[in-house]
Amino acid sequence: MKLIIAIIQDEDAGEVISHLNEAEIQVTRLATKGGFLRSGNTTIMTGVDDEKVDEALKIIEENSKSRTQYATLPSSCGAMHGFILAPIEVKVGGATVFVLDVDQFHKF
Ligand code: 2BA
Q1: For residue 19, what are the CA distances in angstroms to 5, 34, 74, 86, 89?
Q2: Residue 91 beta carbon below 6 angstroms from any ligand 1 atom
Q3: Name one Pfam family in it (predicted).
């Protein structure tokens, strides 16, 4: 068994989760925030048998879109001595995915 942890954008979460559920793959959804943009994203955790890993990854990949976002970071140059905010373009996603071996799985 594997544990798939996937960080996806909030906008894609509904589609990803409903397609996983249709494939009889159970999901736990967590509301998370990226450390860089500090904006909300969604982390899904799903425990799957080894033979279902590829199917789950395909569903996550196919339903997670890459998007451009803007982050405003302090700039070190300019008249305000570091207080001018410089928006930068950041490409986010589709999905950041970790696949971990599961040592034990219990439902008590
Ligand atoms: P954030 O940390 O908010 O990062 C959003 C996007 O900003 C990233 O997209 C990346 O394109 C860019 N970015 C992140 N750190 C950067 C930096 N130091 N300098 C320049 N650009 C930077 P993604 O790579 O698609 O990541 C989307 C979200 O996935 C991240 O949100 C974070 O929540 C998570 N993530 C990505 N890689 C991770 C990792 N190795 N471990 C844990 N979480 C990760």
Answers
A1: 16, 24, 40, 39, 30
A2: yes
A3: CdAMP_rec
pLDDT tens digits, 30-54: 999 999 888 899 999 999 999 999 9
CA-proximal residue: ligand 1, atom 21 (nearest) = 90
- Predicted TM-score (pTM) of the model is 0.89
Query: CATH number of the domain at 2-65+93-101, out of 3.30.70.120, 3.40.50.300, 3.40.190.10, 3.20.190.10?
Result: 3.30.70.120
Nearest CA to ligand 1 atom 16: 36
